[in-house]
TrEMBL record:
All residue ranges annotated as the RING-type domain in the record: 16-55
Name under which the protein is recorded: RING-type E3 ubiquitin transferase
Naturally occurring in which organism (per UniProt): Sciurus vulgaris
Xref: Gene3D superfamilies: Zinc/RING finger domain, C3HC4 (zinc finger)
GO terms, molecular function: nucleosome binding; ubiquitin protein ligase activity; zinc ion binding
InterPro entries, sorted: RNF168/RNF169_E3_ubiq-ligase, Znf_C3HC4_RING-type, Znf_RING, Znf_RING/FYVE/PHD
Enzyme class at the top of the EC tree: transferase
Chief location of this protein within or outside the cell: nucleus
EC assignment: 2.3.2.27
Length: 120
């Protein structure tokens, strides 16, 4: 099925995989992982100068882009604001969005020990 180039991407495509909120001032790392700026800064404050997803070292990249004030992926940030202005305003103001990510499914984790006990 062809998707229109004008179709609005799913809200889940703009979700930070650390805080699970909409990406605010997204930072795209050299490894192409993206997270919201608050989560990125939190990671840096803890002196973890590597990608929180793949652990690639990013200290030089961080210094370079911090000096040039170019951490934020502005093209992505403008796209997110265009498609989801209300969610962005709520997140920036510190309020929770009433809209749940559209394809959110709760994760169920089972204990292997419990499953073995049930099977036997």
């Amino acid at each position: 099925m062809a998707v229109s180039k004008h179709a609005i991407p799913s809200l889940s495509e703009y979700q930070c995989q650390i805080c699970l909120e909409i990406l605010i001032e997204p930072v795209t790392l050299p490894c192409n992982h993206t997270l919201c700026k608050p989560c990125f800064l939190s990671t840096i404050e803890k002196a973890n100068l590597c990608c929180p997803f793949c652990r690639r070292w990013i200290s030089s990249w961080t210094r370079y882009h911090t000096r040039r004030n170019s951490l934020v992926n502005m093209e992505l940030w403008e796209t997110i604001q265009k498609h989801y202005p209300n969610e962005c305003k709520l997140r920036v103001s510190g309020q929770e969005s009433e809209k749940v990510v559209d394809d959110y499914q709760p994760v169920r984790v089972y204990s292997i020990v419990l499953l073995i006990a049930v099977i036997n």
